[in-house]
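User: Could you go from structure to sequence for me? I need the amino acid at each position, not a summary. Structure tokens:
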């Protein structure tokens, strides 16, 4: 790891007053959660099957989705924060970090100590469920009790709506409020740090350039190159946990 790059990132962090961290799947690979486009990513092996429109139309599909959810290994719900998440939480405690904008659904930033209201979850959270009609929240243990023993797809006890994990699936609209919160955070920051995102999924991938065009410094820490590398103030193709730990040490 280049000491000069670490020193430069440390300087940028030291000078910053309002840091936004934008995190993608790459920050969670060190916690054992597969990313999408890396060498061992989901897109290199199989496509995700959670299509929103099919989920809505087909009770059989919902049954199978919940069956897989409850018979799986619990990779996401059992994962623990790694050094990258802990470093981001340390930036918050240092009163440097204002928000985390994340594409991840694992909730690991909150587990690491970033308050929930400071984590903007663009793609939702897999650790609980919600009614698609009235948005009533359900813990997964509640949904499991609804589903078993006869594998009945769960419906909301308040309005009768369909219950789904609180994630954004393929074909499902992006959450308007979260996107608005993210844009406001981006326009208010003076240092925007991308951690583990390939920056190919829009509109969220447009946030780094928006931040820079608004006067923010732009840094990317990612194992593989991105299309935005040439526009950055600093790029580190290094492991996130090791890099960020060295920066805050």
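Assistant: Here is the amino acid at each position, in order:
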């Amino acid at each position: 790891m280049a000491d000069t790059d670490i020193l430069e990132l440390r300087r940028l962090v030291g000078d910053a007053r309002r840091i936004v961290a934008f995190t993608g799947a790459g920050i969670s690979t060190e916690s054992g959660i597969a990313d999408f486009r890396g060498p061992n990513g989901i897109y290199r092996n199989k496509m995700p099957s959670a299509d929103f429109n099919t989920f809505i139309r087909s009770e059989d599909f919902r049954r199978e989705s919940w069956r897989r959810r409850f018979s799986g290994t619990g990779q996401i719900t059992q994962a623990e924060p790694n050094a990258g998440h802990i470093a981001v939480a340390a930036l918050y405690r240092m009163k440097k970090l204002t928000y985390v904008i994340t594409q991840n659904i694992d909730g690991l930033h909150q587990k690491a100590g970033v308050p929930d209201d400071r984590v903007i979850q663009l793609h939702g959270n897999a650790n609980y469920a919600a009614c698609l009609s009235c948005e009533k929240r359900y813990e997964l243990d509640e949904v499991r009790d609804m589903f078993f023993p006869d594998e009945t797809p769960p419906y909301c006890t308040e309005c009768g709506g369909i219950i789904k994990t609180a994630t954004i699936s393929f074909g499902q609209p992006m959450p308007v409020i979260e996107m608005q919160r993210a844009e406001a955070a981006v326009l208010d920051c003076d240092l925007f740090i991308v951690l583990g995102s390939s920056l190919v999924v829009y509109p969220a991938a447009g946030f780094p350039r928006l931040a820079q065009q608004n006067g923010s410094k732009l840094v990317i820490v990612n194992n593989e190159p991105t299309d935005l590398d040439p526009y950055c103030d600093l790029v580190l193709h290094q492991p996130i946990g090791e890099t960020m730990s060295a920066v805050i040490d």
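One structural detail worth keeping in mind: The chain has a mean pLDDT of 91.
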